[in-house]
Amino acid sequence: MSDTLPADVVGRRVEVNGEHATVRFAGVIPPVTGLWLGVEWDNPKRGKHDGSHEGTAYFKCRHPAGGSFVRPNKVNFGVDFLTAVEDRYVLEDGPEEEGKEQVITFGKKTIETVGFDSVREQQSQLNKLQEISLSGCAVSRAGDEGAIANACPNVAKVDLSKNLLSSWEEVTRIAEQLPHLEVLNLSENKLEFPSGSPPLTTTFSTLKVLVLNQTGVTWAEVLRCAPAWPVLEELYLNANNLFISERPTTVLQTVKLLNLSSNPSIDESQLFLLAHLPRLEQLILSDTGVSSIHFPDAGIGCKTSMFPALQYLIVNDNRISEWSFVNELDKLKSLRALSCLRNPLTEGSKDARTTRQLIIAKIGQLKTLNKCEILPEERYGAELDYRKVFGNDWKKAGGHQDPDRDRPNEEFLAAHPRYQLLCHKYGAPEDGELKVQQPFMLKNQLLTLKIKYPDKLEQKVLEKQLPGSMTVQKVKGLLSRLLKVPVSEFLLSYESSKMPGIEIELKNDLQSLQFYSVENGDCLLVRW
Q1: Range 442-527: architecture per CATH
Q2: How far is CA 72 from CA 25, 26, 35, 54, 298, in A?
Q3: pLDDT at 1 > cutoff 60
Q4: Could you tell me which residues come within 8 angstroms of residue 140 by beta carbon, excluding any fewer than 6 positions away?
Q5: Which of 298-322 are b and which e, b meaning 16 or more Cβ less than 10 Å from the residue's Cβ?
Q6: What is the model's pTM?
Q7: CATH 3.90.226.10 holds for 259-295+304-374
């Protein structure tokens, strides 16, 4: 806090009673004497007006009540980078006394020193620091030229989130003294970025991870600064109200992860401007309002040339309500993991398991859904069930067991683009499979199964009727009573009557026979 104002006070980031703001005005406000600062609060609820006083506009705010006038001595203009480092990582006690032990803290480590040796110890430890976290430490500037490089030249990771940095130029002054910088978090600093292309330097030549969440950066500013990030792999741009207006043709070509969450104006057409980033493996689009996507270069059953390296897609908390969105994702040739929680499509169904099965059946290359691994037996069951559930629709649309007469119409193929592939994989559904079941009658829930013992040929083959809802664990309990073998020793699998020679392992004791798509006439294989 000071009555002396910096020369460049307008535009500076400040802290007042724990709240952050930007200085928009400095001067006198008649008839009141003395110097005032006009500030625009990050939190507009903290303000009182729009920058006007008694009919005179001294500054403008984006929010009609987002401004206040405060005295300079109430304002914290922040500290330089090295001062913040020393405050956090060096002595926490008062002046040391000769011969008295002092405690120095470096991250999670504490070191006890004695007397005047502690000063040298502190300096040597700062020199060894590789990670620095200064989140919320009111850092506003780089400080004296070369001071950071002299004190902590080996730092590779820096967290400067929630500070008072006001310009990308000041960030550059800090970074140019950290030659090994790989990770930089600048979240929640309201930064002014260059209006033109900044000079190309080697300042960020080792930077791999850059976090610019809630910094106010625009897409045009990202592209202007990006030539200075030649090896960048992860870029976080959350909550900047971004509008992607231009394709990055020569920059961001090394980016593997791009997080655009909480930018509510992003739509399908903007995403296509990112579609040819050659190394983009992870795309995070949570809470962006995305509702549809269509890859025009790929027809039914084909793969798109867009997003060639994309393996992991997150679209949580959006407005996805149509299965056509999921159908299109099957066109992504590298997609292996999907998270699509809290969308109308996934939340509207009463049966989350059915929704999961449908997504698995519709995206053939998927290995993980909503952070849960898709086991081979789950995929097998999901695809078999999908084939049966929509079998009647397939027949009505022109589908037929005879390949020469199998011609489902375009409407069906558009709604179920993988259906024909599943018919080739498992065989076309037979009429007996498509009969409507009566789920509330016990006799219709019982499965007639053969039980064989591949390693115990002397054991007699059994035939049992078991409920489809019976868990693998209970099946093992039944077999334990029959065979006098401990439950823990059993290994169960089954062979489908429709796919002889293919054995499906029943790995999860808590799942039911229905989960694994065990059907009438199938054979349980028991080993111990």
Answers
A1: Roll (3.10)
A2: 11, 9, 7, 21, 62
A3: no
A4: 12, 13, 77, 78, 79, 80, 163, 164, 165, 166, 170
A5: beeeebbebbbebbbbbbbbbebee
A6: 0.78
A7: no
Amino acid at 280: L
d(CA 90, CA 121): 10
DSSP class of residue 216 equals -
Q: Quick one: which H or E segment has residue 148?
A: helix 147-151
Tokens of 333: 């040739």
Secondary structure letter of residue 74 according to DSSP: G
Q: What is the pLDDT of residues 103-146, one digit of tens each?
A: 444 444 444 444 444 544 554 578 889 999 999 999 999 999 99
Rounded to the nearest 10 degrees, the angle between the axes of helix 81-89 and helix 117-128 is: 110
Check if CATH label 1.10.12 holds for domain 79-223+244-255: no
Dig out the tokens for 341 from the structure: 């929680």
* Per-residue model confidence as pLDDT tens digits over 35-58: 999 999 999 999 989 999 988 999
The CATH 3.10.20.90 domain(s) of the chain lie at 442-527
Side-chain-side CA neighbours of residue 237 (13 Å) = 25
With 0-12 / 13-18 / 19 or more C-beta atoms within 10 angstroms meaning exposed / middle / buried, residue 181 is buried
Residue range 13-74 forms a domain whose CATH class is mainly beta
As a whole number of angstroms, the distance between CA 6 and CA 117 comes to 37
DSSP H helices in 44-146: 81-89, 117-128
User: CA-to-CA distance for 213 and 261, rounded, in angstroms?
Assistant: 9
Instruction: Measure the CA–CA gap between 93 and 332, rounded to whole angstroms.
Output: 58
CA atoms within 13 A on the CB side of 6: 16
Q: Which helix (H) or strand (E) holds 314?
A: strand 312-314
- What are the start and end residues of each CATH 2.30.30.190 domain in the chain? 13-74
The predicted-structure confidence for 486-507, as pLDDT tens digits, reads as follows 999 999 999 988 777 888 889 8
Q: Which of 344, 348, 355, 359 minimizes the C-alpha distance to 313? A: 359
Q: How far apart are CA 240 and CA 218, in angstroms?
A: 7
